[in-house]
Amino acid sequence: MWQDFLDLFAKGYDVPLWEQLLRVVLAMLLGAVFGFERELKNKPAGFITFMLVSMGSCLFALLQINIVKTNISVVDPGAPVTVSLDTTRLIAQVVSGIGFLGAGTIIHTRGGAKGITTAALLWVSASIGLLVGMGGIANYFIALVTTCIIFPATLLLRRFGRMYVAGHRIYRMDIVFEEQHEQELYDKITNNGGLIKKTFFHTKYVENNVHYKEVFVYVGITKHNNYNELVDMISNENWVLSVEDA
């Protein structure tokens, strides 16, 4: 009896059951790497969520493998029957299902959307689980390299990318001011760390016998200067009616 039970874990499938269980554990651990990074940043989807996503994807991959094995095994080996099975259906459903889960982590706000990186990582975590679940040296290698080398390198590149963007970002300012002070406005921007890239005239109007002009100013910020401080400085001028991000 016990021997039959042990044999069940060693044979009877193209992939022994003990190896399938190890795949589940490996997928869970690799998913935890992504979840740990999100947990440190206090994101909506954290450690447990990513483990479950990766583990669940692995289980679906194993289910696909076992379904194929089961369907082929019921066919009489001596009968000239060709079995045609679509081995991608379950995997395709996992991909679409993760899309719904990822959409739930995205929060839309007036200023844009948050949680897109978390949603993308959920998608990657699911793909890691599928790779491990389907098995094969190539899949294991790709999953391990992606999780332990490429993913950390991506985080490092993101940090350098943000530093580069911070030094080269172009801001668009919507400024309404008294028309007679136009040159003074541009001089003030330039003298306080702003680099005017281009300007666009928007409109003119007269209010209480004062001629106002509205322009869009595309400006960069030189090193050691701050965009918000520049905006505050311009806003404090009594001849400036409003300054907004456009």
Number of H/I helices = 8
Adjacency order of strands in the biggest sheet: 4-5-3-6
Amino- and carboxy-terminal Cα gap: 75 Å
Please state the average pLDDT score.
80
Question: How much of the sequence is in beta strands?
Answer: 15-25%
- Unreliable stretches (pLDDT < 50, length at least 5) are none
Shape: elongated
Helix content: 55-70%
Count every beta strand, where a strand is a DSSP E run of 2 or more residues: 6
- Cα Rg: 29 Å
Largest sheet: 4 strands, antiparallel
What is the N-to-C succession of helices and strands? HHHHEEHHEHEEHE
Structural class: alpha+beta
Topology summary:
Elements (H helix, E strand, L loop, with lengths): L1 H9 L6 H24 L6 H27 L15 H15 L3 E3 L2 E3 L1 H19 L2 H32 L1 E9 L3 H10 L2 E14 L2 E12 L5 H9 L4 E6 L1
